[in-house]
Structures are given as C-alpha cells and as structure tokens.
Design a protein that fits this description.
The protein has 300 residues and is of the alpha/beta class. It has 2 domains: 127 residues, HAD superfamily/HAD-like (Rossmann fold), CATH 3.40.50.1000; 104 residues, HAD superfamily/HAD-like (Rossmann fold, 3-Layer(aba) Sandwich), CATH 3.40.50. The protein is 34% helix and 18% strand. The protein is built from 10 helices and 15 strands. The strands form 4 sheets. A 6-stranded parallel sheet has the order 5-4-1-13-14-15, with helices on both faces. Helix 2 links the parallel strand 4 and strand 5. The two termini are 29 Å apart. Bound molecules: magnesium ion (MG). Magnesium ion binds next to loops.
C-alpha cells in the first residue's frame, strides 16, 4: 500500500543490539539503512559509547556492510564536547576516556589538562586505573565538575558483560560524594541535540533501540515516537516492569523494515493516524493507536 502524502520523518538509531551484536550484523539492518538512504529519510546512529570517533564508528559499520558516512554518527562523546563548549567555551578537562572523547573535546576548543581542570570527564575505555581515579577525586574535591558521557552500568561484549562508564563514574561519586552530570542517552541533552541534527521536530522523530533505560526512556521523555527491538538486551516479558512503554515493539529491525514496506515507507504511527489497515498485518492486542501491529514472534 502506498500512502500518497509523505510527511517528513526520520530516525535516531541505537547501534549495539539493533544493527549488530558483537561483530555480527543483525539480519535486515543493511536493508533498513539502504532504504533510508535510497528514500532520503534522515537518520543518525546514536551511541552512548564514547570510546570511538565518528570516523572509527563509520569504518566499523562499513566493515559490517552498512554504507554510511561520518554525518550519520552521533556519539555521547560528541554530545558531551558540544555541551561543555556551550557551558564554558574554551574550558579545560581532565579526561578518563579514549580517542573518541579526546578528539571531540579538542574539536570543540577544549584543552585536556592534568591540573586544576574545569571538568573531570569520564567516558568508556580500557585505560581506567586507580591512579587516574585518585587524581580525578582530588580534582573534583578541589572544585572540578564531574561529567559522565553516559551512565550505562555495563556493556555487552562477545564474552558477556563488561563494566560500563556508569560503573566507573559510580566509583568517583562514592569517593567524592558528588553526583555526576550525564550527557548521553537518556539525557535530554543528547536526545535533543540528535533530533536537531536530523533537522526535524519532536513529532517527526523516532528513536529505535534495544534498551528500555536509555533508548526508550530518552525517546519517551522527549516525546519522540519509540520503537523497541527485541534483538538486544530486552525481552518481551521484561516490558510490564516499566512505567513507560515503547510505541512499537518488533522482534528486530528486519520486521520494522517489513512494516515500513507494507505502508510504502511511511512510519507506522503516520499510517495509524491515517487509519491505514493493510490486510497483510496480523491483528494483535496492544496495537499502536488504530494500527494493527505484527505479532511478536520469538527470533530463532
Ligand atoms: Mg543498544
């Protein structure tokens, strides 16, 4: 079915658990991204991982077979650097983190120092050690503001979970009694900046993610449309535990592409508003608005 008027819309897309798991592309991700490019539908990849620069992220996605460019990537490191440059232009930062964060700060006019900084900024990385923590604690107690690129408690790897930025920040918070200000998802700072990157309004923006605490919460708080994919960390049976819910739940991005196909690449909520009722979609309880959504089936 082709819907005639096609209002503007675009997607903010989480990466880990949506596009890939570890080094494996999730089936359908390449088709979804290819269609967005082909149809000039704006999108940005939104990642809380501040370790890599956007160039590094693009190289990784290209290796996985996704033809995307630098402009498509928006990391928590970029959001953090942009935020700090607005708060205090030309400031100084002591950084516990890696290339993505250091590059973003430099690009926004920040000097990275190891004495009396304006901010202690903590991001993802494998260079964390107690000497860095000790220096950071003294700086925070000396008046430096504590900034986290994100508060994710852990991150999935091929070998299970590794501690995330939030776990490292918790150590500094406990030692100093100072609460960090976090910029990454679900913070409105990053969500709003990403929406502005798309050049779209709130109602034209949708967030696709696999994590309720970051992707879906952030999207819901900003009033974006939200799509939860079950190809990452969240299971369908987890959903009743949350006070907020995604607008659409699909097994993976492949089924979202199928849904978009049915509606002529009009997003499901637009189709719902236009009361479209394609016969190829299975009626199920918990449908979005008037829109019957596909039944959720377990992924093999
Ligand atoms: Mg994810």
């Amino acid at each position: 079915m082709q819907l005639t008027d096609s209002p503007k819309f675009g997607f903010l897309i989480d990466m880990d658990g949506v596009l890939y798991r570890g080094t494996e592309l999730i089936p359908g991700a390449d088709r979804f991204i290819r269609e967005l490019c082909r149809r000039d539908i704006p999108f940005r990849f939104l990642t809380n991982n501040s370790q890599r620069t956007r160039r590094d992220v693009v190289a990784r996605l290209n290796r996985l077979g996704l033809e995307v460019e630098d402009q498509h990537v928006f990391t928590s490191a970029m959001a953090t650097a942009r935020f700090l440059a607005q708060q205090k232009p030309g400031g100084t930062a002591y950084v516990i983190g890696e290339g993505g964060l250091l590059t973003a700060l430099h690009q926004h006019g920040y000097a990275v120092v190891d004495h009396a900084p304006d901010y202690v900024v903590v991001g993802e990385g494998r260079t964390f050690n107690l000497e860095l923590v000790e220096s950071a604690v003294r700086m925070i107690l000396g008046g430096a503001k504590l900034i986290a690129t994100n508060m994710d408690p852990n991150c999935p790897t091929q070998n299970g979970l590794r501690p995330g930025c939030g776990a490292m920040v918790a150590m500094l918070e406990t030692a100093t009694g100072v609460k960090a200000f976090s910029v990454g998802k679900p913070s409105p700072v990053m969500m709003r900046a990403a929406r502005k990157e798309l050049g779209l309004t709130t109602d034209e923006t949708a967030m696709i993610g696999d994590t309720m605490e970051t992707d879906i919460l952030g999207g819901a708080q900003l009033g974006f449309h939200t799509v939860l994919v079950l190809s990452g960390g969240t299971k369908a049976e987890d959903l009743p535990r949350y006070a907020y819910r995604p607008d659409v739940v699909v097994p993976s991005i492949a089924e979202l592409a199928d849904m978009m196909d049915v509606y002529g690449w009009c997003p499901p909520w637009r189709a719902a508003a236009q009361k479209a009722t394609p016969s190829s979609i299975v009626q199920s309880p918990g449908s979005y608005g008037n829109l019957p959504v596909p039944e959720i089936t377990a992924k093999e």
